[in-house]
Specification:
Blueprint: E1 4-6, H1 9-16, H2 21-31, H3 37-42, H4 56-61, H5 75-80, H6 83-102, E2 112-118, H7 124-127, E3 132-135, E4 141-146, H8 150-154, H9 156-172, H10 180-198, H11 205-208, H12 212-224, H13 232-240, H14 242-247, H15 259-275, H16 279-283, H17 287-293
Parallel strand pairs: 1-2, 2-4
Antiparallel strand pairs: 3-4
Helix pairs in contact: 6-9, 9-10, 10-15, 10-17, 12-15
Length: about 300
Amino acid sequence: MPPIHIIRSDKIYLKLLELDVAQRDAYFRENLLKHFREKFEIQQIPFEPTAAGFDALMMLNQTHVSPAEFNSSNKKQMDMLDDDFWDNCKSAIEDVLKRFEKKGMRSKVSQYTFTVLLGDEQKPTMFLNQNYGGEGGIPGYVWLSLVPNAYTLKRTKSAIAHEFNHNLRYQYVQWDGGSLAELIVSEGLAENFVEAMYGKSYLGPWVTAIDWNQSQALIKNIIGKHLDIDNMFEAMPYLYGDEIAQLYSGNQVVLPHSAGYTCGYYLVKTYLEKTNCGIEEATMKSAQEILNEVESFWNTNIV
């Protein structure tokens, strides 16, 4: 198992309170974001501020409490990210990696870098997801986005399972640039993995918020007709739904929030039940392999 490099973001956030606002972005970039610099470079997101006004920190500020916004009222949240919290995060990561290793699927990276960023409960990308989420699509790098409270702290381990499922997948499966097929399959795999590890009660709100019995016909009809979309920009509205698409001036496609996640969850569940394939093995299969086995999904009511 590769070493797990935990970045104690709580200490970095608290240090911001000692700095002038003008110094904070540079400090945050140098002490936290630099550990993810390779990730941003792979994603072609500028690490340093640019004349165009877009960089990694600006992107993160759309979802998180910015270094400039962080204040003494956030200290209680940081107090929740104590030694036990970070120890539990490491244990949860190890549990995921061990589960894959038992199936013969070992990490291909030399190290995992992990941290938790402070989510802003006033920003839609957080409150629409009940104040927790994460990003784990670049091998070796994972962070969670969290507004610390009793509910989100309990679900930290399931968020870790979700993001590390992505991380392991893209060590074995070539990222295709963000096709709609890949996005819904990968999210479906991640949530079925969460369920396999921790049970249905730990499924994320991006699956449970939609009444599938009532909405599946609409969702399947719209998403199923657009599986040929081969780029992330066009695919995102179908994955996230209209509320998020509207925030970023994307096309509205008459889908509820996180429709693609919910659809992917039930699609992958159908695949697992039909093939008796384990979730770990399925995680390493291409989206097309999975879709080819469940063509009837798009025309069948799944309860």
